């Protein structure tokens, strides 16, 4: 049996600095975070972007992990090269093979702390269930969005994104740092429990399933001409009813929610998403039965069967 | 008598986007903001930095307005060139001579809305008094700081900075936009009143006088190794007592306020100031008598005597 190794990433976006700062402090004081004896690799995803105080240099690194055939260590695009390098160094078949990737992000939206899973991979859902059971974190299932692909964690057999907010870009904050530390340690503890087969899975999982994203109102030239309505700002996870206010313009016009279904908005006014034409995303809240295949998949992965 | 002209600047820092957005909307709908018939010029301070989603390209534009002899339209430094250009176009002796400059900023600190005056120029203090009297805004008197010079408004005979927060960089927010609009209109209304000599000055002015700035705790290599204490975060304008918590480190160490005087902290954890080695600034709250020279200076300026 090969040794279990976990890849921990902070700063996949260079201006999300709380995780980077925590990792830097951790390098200085190895006792700072309990990894329950599991071998980990700590990586700053986009150190060049961090230096530049930006999300990325050429292209969003967390949209750059494409099919292996497209990855290129020789690309002139900095993030494509960096994605290849991280997979080369820490991929499942890399120099330091990792089976699980945990990617720590922050958001300017009032998301609190949450997990993001990409698609419906059994091991991801099992690990997310364990964390929801421990900390009650909401889970955002990102799927069916052809415009947003190439996420880092998808290049590992199991991987979660951890999103913590609200926090401005480039801003260090005690609450965000301590939340990051808590969730990191809880993830390591739960992986440790699975390794020792001392694991307790819940019967149900609450999922916020991605339905679609909506853009800001824009004028004829494509410029944003309305902002998030004050009644909607910072109201992530709070159900929308028909006719609820979404945006307003300076001329008093209000743009309302016109769907018949009661969607739950997430990532409301995430600063980095304006360039992606996303003002917020809509999800459906669903209660899923826990599937025993999820458990088997995670156990098999961690035990390297 | 020459015509009174007022220079209005937003986006002196490219990632403070609320003022820029308001000005862009205003360009589309001239009725949006009431300037009380006063001729204004609306300028985006650093449009290149705005495009790049950054505070500046080479150097902070709001530290680039040096003595005229140092200004250079041919500099290879983008912001030096831009500073020269703005003075050339809108300076007191420029193509479109303006006597007053109003510079709209935002901050990640919980400053609410406030005015910043640089040094003790009579006309600045008169205009700030009028606004404090109307809106109750605190006034931060920035002086005696040799490390921070070259502010835009100092290149005009009268000028104020308006700071509004908290808001993350690159983030549009209804509250910040509406505060910017309110303060801009109040400034124009008060200038209009002075023009018509229908002016009412208060007897007293509350000033927060800059004393000094303090840096984050740093390790031996100069890296930040502590963050703003949760009890201090977002507590701008709230008096510090000896032994109050300022910063903490992940090892539990707390750095405390050790001054004997009860300073008032401002700009706590402004994201852009970390590179300037400023975690927060200390001020003294003072009650000043209104001076009749201030009034005379502002009236003379506006009436072009």
Number of helices of chain A: 6
Hey, which two chains have the biggest interface?
A-B, 38 and 38 residues
- The proportion of residues forming helix of chain A, as a percent range, comes to 25-40%
Counting DSSP E segments of at least 2 residues, the number of strands of chain A comes to 12
- Give me the side-by-side strand order of the main sheet of chain A: 2-1-3-6-4-5-7-12-11
- The CATH superfamily of the largest domain in chain A appears as Zn peptidases
- Order of helical and strand elements of chain A: EHEHHEEHEEHEEEEEEH
Strand content of chain A: 15-25%
CATH class wording of the largest domain in chain A: Alpha Beta
Structural class of chain A: alpha/beta
Poorly predicted ranges of chain A:
none
Shape of chain A: globular
Q: Sheet bearing the most strands of chain A, described? A: 9 strands, mixed
Let me know the average pLDDT of chain A: 95
Distance between the termini of chain A: 8 Å
CATH architecture of the largest domain in chain A: 3-Layer(aba) Sandwich
Provide the number of structural domains of chain A: 2
Task: Give me the Rg of chain A, rounded.
Answer: 19 Å
- Could you tell me the CATH topology label of the largest domain in chain A: Aminopeptidase
The quaternary structure here is: homodimer
């Amino acid at each position: 049996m090969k040794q279990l190794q976990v890849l921990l990433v902070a700063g996949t976006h260079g201006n999300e600095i709380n995780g980077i700062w925590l990792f830097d402090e951790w390098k200085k004081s190895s006792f700072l975070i309990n990894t329950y004896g599991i071998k980990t690799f700590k990586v700053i995803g986009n150190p060049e972007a961090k230096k530049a105080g930006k999300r990325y240099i050429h292209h969003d690194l967390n949209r750059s992990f494409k099919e292996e055939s497209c990855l290129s260590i020789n690309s002139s695009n900095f993030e494509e090269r960096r994605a290849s390098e991280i997979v080369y160094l820490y991929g499942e078949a890399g120099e330091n093979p990792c089976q699980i990737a945990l990617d720590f992000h922050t958001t300017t939206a009032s998301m609190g702390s949450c997990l993001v899973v990409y698609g419906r991979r059994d091991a991801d859902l099992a690990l997310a269930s364990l964390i929801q059971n421990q900390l009650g974190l909401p889970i955002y299932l990102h799927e069916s969005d052809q415009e947003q692909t190439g996420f880092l964690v998808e290049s590992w057999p199991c991987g979660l994104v951890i999103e913590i907010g609200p926090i401005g870009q480039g801003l260090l904050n005690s609450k965000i740092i301590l939340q990051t530390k808590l969730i990191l340690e809880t993830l390591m503890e739960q992986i440790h429990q699975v390794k020792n087969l001392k694991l307790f899975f819940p019967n149900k999982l609450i999922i916020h399933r991605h339905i679609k994203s909506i853009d800001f109102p824009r004028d004829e030239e494509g410029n944003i001409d309305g902002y998030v309505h004050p009644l909607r700002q910072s109201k992530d996870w709070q159900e929308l009813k028909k006719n609820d206010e979404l945006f307003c313009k300076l001329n008093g016009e209000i743009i309302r929610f016109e769907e018949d279904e009661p969607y739950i908005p997430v990532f409301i006014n995430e600063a980095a998403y304006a360039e992606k034409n996303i003002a917020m995303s809509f999800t459906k809240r669903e209660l899923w039965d826990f599937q025993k295949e999820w458990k088997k998949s995670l156990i098999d992965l961690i035990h390297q069967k």
